[in-house]
Amino acid sequence: MKLQINKVSRAITYALASTASMGMLTTSAFAAGEDEAKEKNIEKIAVVGSRAAPRSVGDSPVPIDIIGGDELAKGGGDDMLELLKGSVPSLNVHQNPISDAASLVRPANLRGLPADSTLILLNGKRRHRSSVIAFLGGGINDGAQGPDISTIPSIALKQVEVLRDGAAAQYGSDAIAGVINFVLKDADEGGSFSVKKGQFFEGDGDTTTYEGNVGLPFSDNGFANLSFQYKEADATSRSVQRPDAQAFTDAGLEGVRNPAQVWGAPEIKDDISLFGNVGLELSNNDEFYMFGNYSERDVKGGFYYRNPTTRPGVYGGVIRNVNGTPMRRDPNDVEQQKLWDAANPTILVGSLDGYEQQLDCPVVEIGANGLPDQAGLDSLTAANCFAFNQVLPAGFTPFFGGNITDTSFTVGTKGEIDEGYFEGAYFDISGSVGRNESRYFITNTVNASLGPDSPQDFSPGKYIQLEKNFNADISKGYDFDLAYDVNIAAGLEWHEESFEVIAGDEASFIPGPLTQQGFGIGSNGFPGFQPSAAGVFTRRNYGAYLDVETPFTDEFLMGWALRFEDYDSFGSTTNYKVTAQYQATDDLSFRGSISTGFRAPTVGQANVSNVQTNLSSGVLVDSALLPPTNPIAVQKGGTELQPEESESYTLGAVYQSGDLFLTIDYYNIEVTDRISQSEKIELSLADKETLKAAGVPNVDGLAQVSFFTNDFDTTTQGVDVVANYSMDLLDGYSTFAFAYNWNETTVDKSSDITGVFKVKRLEEDLPKHRSSFTWSSQWETISSFVRANYFGEYQGVHVDYDATAKTADASVTIDAEVTYFATDSISISVGANNLFDQEPEKLDFFNKTQIPNNNWGGKYYETSPYGINGGFYYVKATYTF
């Protein structure tokens, strides 16, 4: 490319010698011949990690994985997170069933850190974050707000570069764990179209995907590369009937769903992604570029089953004094709930004539068969009283979902300055805007306080994340009589981030006439955002950096980076990074880095408030998430959020000889003041009065409160091993790739509001050992791909309840694909993920006395690192032109 500058012989030499990190020669390209396939791997050069000329992965002083677009296309899944997880063992992804908005935008963890500790780039430019905050992210992702990677289709990508090293001094906030750069295709001709159909071995989760890519000329000196993906996926269920729901069916209650509560992947409808990448040479030294996307999808999943005799605020009823007289029930008094008289339970009944008449309503007791007394229910109408058992006698399970819309647009110019003091310097000036909107809906539920007038479908509101960036970068090589030019780069960045809360429909949050009588307020399961919580919250910051690479000798290279950032909320921060690489022999080099980093608290984390329905010791309760500066949050230990800070270092070695490529890297990351959601803190009556005085609405229905806080310090360390080898085998051409990751996190310090179980989840939920072994083969008309994935022991957890936790066994899954090239243009692929249907760890706590006699309908621990859905098979047809 004409615009690449400072292409020293060192970079060219390693570009020719290197094949790929993590592997992986692509087999779909091999139909054109073995020589062409080898030739394509010369292009495996990374943009991230250096401000000088793009480097091969072997020439980089920091560890970088490069996964080609064709490699990503292998595999049954269409979610980018799943595709990357198979290629990068230090990347972990959970499915998060029944986890509020975390089910809609799944978080991912690079090197054991939360989703918002990895910086996401698109064509080297900062990608905006999602509007979804993982309120119930579970363990490591609890409270994370990272970008939505799933909007990026593999067919749009030329390659993905994964920088496994802290890079905040180079790129700014969020790069504590590393950087993932998605590079869009830039061909000006050709393209492909494919159709894929798949299904899980269990017979559900039917998935259909259509995708296409086309490269077009843009005048005589440019390109326009366009891609699309459209897919739909049915929901899955890995559930058993809850014992309480089954008991109702056995007792003759009609209308109980089976299963009453579903654990599985959500339904995805009308998932469309459009990506465009445009480039135009303005002269021999300059070019204009433009890229962006529009993505939208509808996601729908399930929530917890509402038991028609015990669910507080909807069905749970009156408790009695020791003398047998009814006592007005306080739905927020947890201790009072524990005193429920099991010998004489009743359902919740409200008077339609008002609060003063509630105790005059008939008492409807629960009979020996576990069902409300029918005669008692029949007597309510005459007394002008009401119970939800009259309209929803079998209980109900809310369905929660959302419409996720994601758009971005970047425009800029880059090239080489051809005159003046900076003659020969490379410049890049760009502006970008990104927007992510999540509009929530919840159906098959009630606002119990509205009584018989409650609708059952609600629109709880929207979150909108909007980000704007402006960047100006310049880079130039200077002759200081070293081995070759010293590259000096500098730049400026301006960034504006806003988080908007739009209130829900009135029925989703309004307190109805039965509020005082113990009936819950708001759409049960996910109450709507109230007008008092709505608004736009904005923050601006600017940054400046200096980056120098000094080749002291042909064998010894060092890099230096310094970055200053200033935020209008919490102030400024300065970070540095030092890297080094020493070429010991022609085949062996050593590398390392030391750096500091930071992650600014998101505007959403600092300002959002919400009400969640969650399990507390196995019981459903309503919990309020408050801004950390709210008076009650301050009273419970909350303070204004400060940035997370990190110190990290890596040490590694690279060996490459002929067709063998091997890297080994150790990393150590210390993070202080990590931001997370606090433990759910029980509210006293005095706390509620303080909340009311602060203007928090609907306080009486809350049992707990939480807030975002700089909660704890951690040390994460690990080792990455990557090996690749290519050879002629069985009359074809084969590539073998091995990757291994050991990762361990230790909580060094935690605040008084961090629970012991939360610490345990941070340290033990993710497997400490992960590895993969891949064999890709190519013959004249057939290619094959087999990958074995190893997942070490991990902590099995269900419903975020410590009594369910256990150490789950290590497992191995196998992925495989075979492609037949019928013609030069048409190919057919058949494959499977988890080919032998390896089951995740099964729940085994059913008989533990400390757990309520209810397993919540699950079959497997939800923290399984390879999901709970089992094997998936697919067939794919591709037309290439």
Structural features, described:
- This protein has 881 residues and is mainly β.
- Helices cover 9% and strands 44% of the residues.
- It has twelve helices and 40 strands.
- The strands form seven sheets. It has a 22-stranded antiparallel β-barrel. Strands 3-8-9-6-7 form a five-stranded mixed sheet. A two-stranded antiparallel sheet has the order 1-2.
- The two termini are 24 Å apart.
What labels would you give this structure?
single chain; 881 residues; mainly beta; 22-stranded antiparallel barrel; 5-stranded mixed sheet; 12 helices; globular; disordered N terminus; TonB-dependent receptor; Beta-barrel_TonB; membrane; transmembrane beta strand
Task: Give the topology.
Blueprint lengths: L8 H9 L16 H7 L4 E2 L8 E2 L7 E5 H5 L6 H6 L5 E3 L14 E3 L7 E5 L2 E2 L30 E7 L4 H4 L6 E7 L6 E10 L6 E11 L4 E12 L9 H8 L16 E15 L4 E17 L16 E2 L5 E2 L6 H5 L11 E2 L22 H5 L6 E2 L12 E18 L9 E18 L13 E22 L7 E18 L31 E17 L4 E12 L3 E13 L4 E12 L3 H5 L2 E7 L2 E8 L4 H5 L8 E14 L2 E18 L3 E2 L2 H9 L10 E26 L2 E19 L5 H9 L4 E10 L3 E10 L2 E3 L9 E3 L2 E11 L4 E8 L38 E9 L1
Parallel strand pairs: 6-9, 28-32
Antiparallel strand pairs: 1-2, 3-8, 4-5, 6-7, 8-9, 10-11, 10-40, 11-12, 12-13, 13-14, 14-19, 15-16, 17-18, 19-20, 20-21, 21-22, 22-23, 23-24, 24-25, 25-26, 26-29, 27-28, 29-30, 30-32, 31-32, 32-33, 33-34, 34-35, 35-38, 36-37, 38-39, 39-40
Q: Which regions are unreliable across 5 or more consecutive residues at pLDDT < 50?
A: 1-43, 319-331
- What structural class should be given to the helix and strand makeup? mainly beta
Return the average pLDDT rounded to an integer. 87
Strand content: 35-45%
Could you give the distance between the termini?
24 Å
Q: What count of helical segments does DSSP give?
A: 12
Number of DSSP strand runs: 40
- Rg from Cα: 29 Å
- In oligomeric terms, what are we looking at? single chain
Strand count, sense and barrel status of the largest sheet are:
22 strands, antiparallel, barrel
Helix content, binned percent: under 10%
Q: What's the shape?
A: globular
